[in-house]
Write a structure and sequence with these properties.
The chain is mainly α and 113 residues long. It contains 1 helix and no strands. The longest helix has 103 residues.
Length: 113
């Protein structure tokens, strides 16, 4: 019986060792699950932050587009004024030319006898 007693003790020791091993194996997936959860949380935060940055960039691009449209309008107005000024200068030149042409037909005052 003495030998059987040793076998029982050895079996119990192995079983206790197996229990520790099983606990260790069970803790690995639990740790991995926590790590995965943290990675997912971190990724979600980064996506939210980057979405905010993308929205801000979109707003800035919209503002830039509006500013470019305003500058284009101002440039169109300047071009229109410049065209009008050129027309006015042309009319002024034509007026001077007409004055010179008419001067040829100017009669000198004469006394009527």
């Amino acid at each position: 019986m003495c030998g059987g007693s040793r076998t029982s003790r050895g079996t119990r020791a192995r079983l206790r060792g197996s229990g520790t091993e099983v606990r260790n194996l069970a803790q690995r997936p639990s740790g991995a699950a926590k790590e995965i959860k943290e990675l997912i949380s971190t990724s979600v935060l980064k996506v939210r932050e980057r979405a905010t940055v993308a929205n801000e960039a979109g707003t800035t691009m919209s503002e830039v587009t509006q500013a470019v449209a305003r500058v284009t309008d101002i440039m169109d107005e300047i071009a229109a004024v410049s065209t009008e000024q050129s027309k006015a200068n042309s009319l002024e030149d034509q007026g001077r030319q007409l004055t010179r042409c008419i001067a040829v037909f100017r009669l000198e005052p004469t006394t009527i006898k």
